[in-house]
Amino acid sequence: MLQMFHADCDGPIISTYHAAMLNLLSVSSVMFECISFPHIRRDFLFKFLVIGSAGSGKSCLLHQFIENKFKQDSNHTIGVEFGSRVVNVGGKTVKLQIWDTAGQERFRSVTRSYYRGAAGALLVYDITSRETYNALTNWLTDARTLASPNIAIILCGNKKDLDADREVTFLEASRFAQENELMFLETSALTGENVEEAFLKCARTILGKIESGELDPERMGSGIQYGDASLRQLRQPRGSAAQTKQQCNC
Amino acid sequence: MERAMEHLNVQLNRLTRSLRRARTVELPEDSETAVYTLMPMVMADQHRSVSELLLNSKFDVNYAFGRVKRSLLHIAANCGSVECLVLLLKRGANPNYQDISGCTPLHLAARNGQKKCMGRLLEFNADVNICNNEGLTAIHWLAVNGRTELLHDLVQHVSNVDVEDAMGQTALHVACQNGHKTTVLCLLDSGADINRPNVSGATPLYFACSHGQRDTAQILLLRGAKYLPDKNGVTPLDLCVQGGYGETCEILIQHHSRLFQTLIQMTQNEDMKENMLRQVLEYVSQQGDSNYQRILTSLAEVATTNGHKLLSLSSNFEVQTKSFLRIIRIFCHVFCLGPSSPNNGNDMGYNGNKTPRNQVFKPLELLWHSLDEWLVLISTELDKECKDINVSSSGNDITSLLLKKQEADNSVLSETPPLLLDAEGVMKTPEGYTDGQDVVSMIANRLSAVIQAFYMCCSCQMPHGMTSPRFIEFLCKHDEVLKCFVTRNPKIIFNHFHFLVECPELMSRFMHIIKGQPFKDRCEWFYEHLLAGQPDSDMVHRPVNENDILLVHRDALFRSSCEVVSKSSNEKLKQGIAVRFHGEEGMGQGVVREWFDILSNEIINPDYALFTQSADGTTFQPNSNSSVNPDHLNYFRFAGQILGLALYHRQLVNIYFTRSFYKHILGIPVSYQDVSSIDPEYAKNLQWILDNDISDLGLELSFSVETDVFGTMEEVPLKPGGTAIQVTQHNKEEYVQLVTELKMTRAIQPQINAFLQGFHTFILPSLIQLFDEYELELLLSGMPEIDVMDWKRNTEYTSGYDMQEPVIQWFWEVVENLTQEERVLLLQFVTGSSRVPHGGFAFLMGGSGLQKFTIAAVPYTSNILPTSSTCINMLKLPEYPCKDVLRDRLLVALHCGSYGYTMA
User: Fold this and answer.
1) Cβ separation of B238 and A31 shorter than 8 Å?
2) What pLDDT score does B748 carry?
3) Contacting residues of B for A250, CB less than 8 Å apart
4) Complex ipTM over 0.85
5) Would you tell me which residues 128-187 of chain A have a C-beta closer than 8 angstroms to some C-beta of chain B?
6) B615 and B703 fall within a common domain
7) Cα separation of B271 and B233, whole Å?
8) Which residues does chain A have within 8 Å of residue B112's beta carbon, measured at their own beta carbons?
9) Residue B530 is assigned to a structural domain of this protein
10) Looking at the structure, do residues B312 and B448 belong to the same domain, yes or no?
């Protein structure tokens, strides 16, 4: 189409060139209307769970973490809710995909179906409620059997702001955490104290495990996915030969 | 004297030369005239003539003329007139003269690829770096057209190979965009900046991707081009996907493996066009087994996450459903294509028989597990609700939420009504879903969308047309919950339970609910499914292939149409019909309409003996004696095809069938009342048997009838051993049914079968079941126009009414104000048919011959509704006290009572 012979010397010579460029412009103008992906390099995606008895403040913790404010008049969660946030951990950009589960017993079978493939979990109890603390063993067993034995769990004693009504001491809980190889923090979804830290600590642990080779992000159900930015150099992937071939051009 | 002679000789000489050459031999003095004399010679490269003319003239070779102010040198360069070009240059033409748009002769020569001209211009010191008004240089022009050889020669003279046009585009940009591989290489070898952004930040790679120039992109990436978005954040990958350029995408992914995940994640982006994205993933998945596995596994993972998000009540239902189902659709599509090595689907494997290929569904199992648990949970809650009506609502279960729903929703359903009373429990609820959100209904929609996805994933692993046993098992397991969902919100069926249409066994479970939905909704659903299998159904106008046009002869319409339709493939006919009458120009929708119209009249043409007119004179049904035409079954199949095709393309036909024949199309059993359309007297007799006790009448009927078969009377049993079974008061209903079937169905069974065979090639039997026989008539033949004046003229009055009665005046006033649809209902209510006979109301037929529309008076009692006797076309209209009451009662009767008979 661009090879037209212009014998008519009065003809607009620019037309052929423009025809070619206009074509491109129309494509681009469509593109400009699209919301494209933000060009933040994302290294990993971790799947997180928030578990624990009803009323221990799981949804409020998540809300505080994502929105940076306290969730007023929170209801019981129906089933499982979803939230996500991109954080920076040790120089890596990690997207946390967080599943906030209902604590009520009747939802137990539904919430359990979300456990598989979680890389990390916040195990939450209410420091003002002995009952929620006593239930921890059950939650922990569930998480370790259903999610993955390698799951990184942080124990969160929530409602730290209500110290006056405390029924579980810090010492007692930290001993429990130690015995069960959990990280431990006391948090307050109301003031925001330690909330961010709890999520980040858990993410940091997972990242450490990946770097040390204890966790293999390539394995299905690890709860970890590579993000946009390739970090595959970090470890030699154990994928199939064909997959390796795919990746070596980068 | 001599001088005068000489002068004459010169003039004569000039004249002969001029005449011999058929042109002037002397350039006019006026430059404008001169230049137009020279121009055609330059264009034709007649350099001798030009040279001769220029020789003794004072013409300025740089004279600029015309609208764009070009010199003759421009013309020579543009047309490739090398000799003239050289001549002009020698005579002092300026090689760098710019026209009104800033173009030099070199630009024009470059644009048109005039190699020799370019060479000569360069010899005469033409400047290669001059930009025209838009910033374009000669190398831009060469790059646009991919004239590598010329570029190669020129580029050595270029001071800056990255010279930008007004848009900041370099020659490399335009070469990449147009995919000229060698040109790109040449420019790169000459030191062009491979990552140069234009004003909007677009790099050469970006340009290559925007036009899907795979090889060019490959070259750029191999030469180390960076992967950069433009200033709006649009990346090369975005562009490839937008354009559906699978090959280019694959190249990008090969070089930047991280883009693989980005590509997969794009399925979540609602701005990406699904068909383009699908096209790309389709291509990439076909590049080897591992790509196939990897794409599907990743898609399954993304789908699972999105499915779970959909089950989170806080997510936006519409957005999340759309996104989730889109991913599932793409996933299933890619899965069905199979890996690149052709496997004949033998490894598809049902449950249990796990093959590596089915492994890709594994990530989704998590979602199906959650779905299952949700449904179990809801079923438990519903059970609990039914059991402990009074205990309920410690506030810790869904019951309380259900209760709220029912309070708000007055249309309480049979499954759960007693709970309404338990308002106390609700008040106690400490949970405080005070916003009254209907949680179960919210989750019901979400779960239904996941069920839809589950069905899609199950069935894409099955051979076509089979329903997955796993899905059937699933449906049976959750039968009650699902029924509860759809009773609460029937829209769910239309929105998500598409599996019903593909699986008639499942459809029957929900049929009563579906049938209860408005006709309009069912129509939409019907067409949605009818067209669902069509590729690119969003493309309305597709060019018609000349070979696909149905060429028919007007004077032999039936036979020629039959011929062309049987020759075309059903798939093509589904995509669209184009008809042209032999010897006529016309084409398009109007012609198609006309074709259907004439053809449907031809189908019932008595000459073909295919259909016979029924007793009422307006409707038709297959002729039991059609076999006089030896090809009759082929023609019935053709008629079925035409009707199916018409319905498929929403064309109306000009045929009205008998009730019973519509029932045959729908697969509904006929009833004895349908007999009246072929034999009204006999129908009355059947009616009589049913209405009266026949025990002591001594009818001596057996389960058999005598029929005339080729001139001899034969006893045909209605059922095995029927001749020996007496008809009694006890079994008379069975007898009537069997004898009806014999008359209505068995007599024309081959014809019906052939017709349906044709019809079902376009319309699935399970789909058409959505409608009843009245609706089918509307779908096929449309709403008839009813002329109220004609109706009024041909109406009789009896039992005390006459034209002047106020009630009658009101009646006609009401009828005039009815909608066309309501008038049809009224007609159907009184006559049993929605049709006005050919010729108008004067030809309205009753049970025995012409029977005009009649209105009879009935004494008024409060709340009494009008009734009718369809066999004598009589409306029994109570003597209503005022017009408003009349209208009110009439409308109630029409909307509730027009279907279904209350035999009087």
Assistant:
1) yes
2) 87
3) 255-258
4) no
5) none
6) yes
7) 14
8) 5-6
9) no
10) yes
Chain A interface disruption, residue of B84, B226, B305, most A CBs within 10 A? B305
Q: Distance between CA B466 and CA B728 in Å, rounded?
A: 45
Interchain CB distance below 8 Å, B108 and A10: no
Question: Do residues B569 and B675 share a domain?
Answer: yes
Same domain, B496 and B554: no
Assigned token pair, B215? 């090889």
Q: Do B178 and A2 touch (CB under 8 A)?
A: yes
Residues B330 and B448 in one domain: yes
**pLDDT (0 to 100) of residue B528:** 82
Q: Is residue B56 part of a domain?
A: no
Interface of A with B in 109-128 (CB under 8 A): 109-110, 112-114, 116-117
Same domain for B788 and B893, yes or no, is: yes
Among chain B residues, the shortest Cα distance to A5 is held by B112
Q: In this structure, what token pair is assigned to residue A228? A: 């946009």
CA closest to B290 among chain A residues: A242
Which of B782, B805, B822 is a domain's end point?
Answer: B782
In a domain, B761, yes or no: yes
Positions of chain B with pLDDT lower than 70, given as ranges: 1, 340-356, 385-439, 532-544, 616, 708-711, 783-784, 832-835, 837-839, 846-849, 896-904
- Flag whether B687 is in a domain: yes
Contact list, B174 vs chain A (CB under 8 Å): 17, 20-21
What is the per-residue pLDDT for A133? 96
The tally of domains found in chain B comes to 4
* Same domain flag for B807 and B842: yes
Kindly calculate the radius of gyration of chain A based on its CA atoms and give it in whole angstroms. 25
Tally of residues, chain A: 250
CA dist list (Å): B851 to B677, B796, B814: 14, 10, 23
- The pTM (predicted TM-score) of the whole model is 0.70
CB contact under 8 A, B230 and A230: no
A243 touches chain B (CB under 8 A): yes
Catalytic residue ranges of B: 871
**Residue B828 CB partners (closer than 8 Å, separation 6+):** B774, B834, B898, B899
d(CA B839, CA B794): 12
Q: Which residue of A has its CA nearest to B224?
A: A250
Instruction: Write out pLDDT tens, residues B564-598.
Output: 888 888 888 888 888 888 887 777 777 888 888 88
Range of the domain at B274: 194-287
DSSP string, B34-80: HHHHHHHHHHTT-HHHHHHHHHT----TT--BTTTTB-HHHHHHHHT
* Same domain (yes/no): B871, B723: no
Domains of chain A with bracketed CATH: 44-228 (3.40.50.300)
Verify whether the Cβ–Cβ distance B235 to A110 is below 8 Å. Answer: no
| Domain of residue B728, CATH code | 3.90.1750.10
Give CA separation, B840 vs B480, B784, B834, in Å: 52, 12, 13
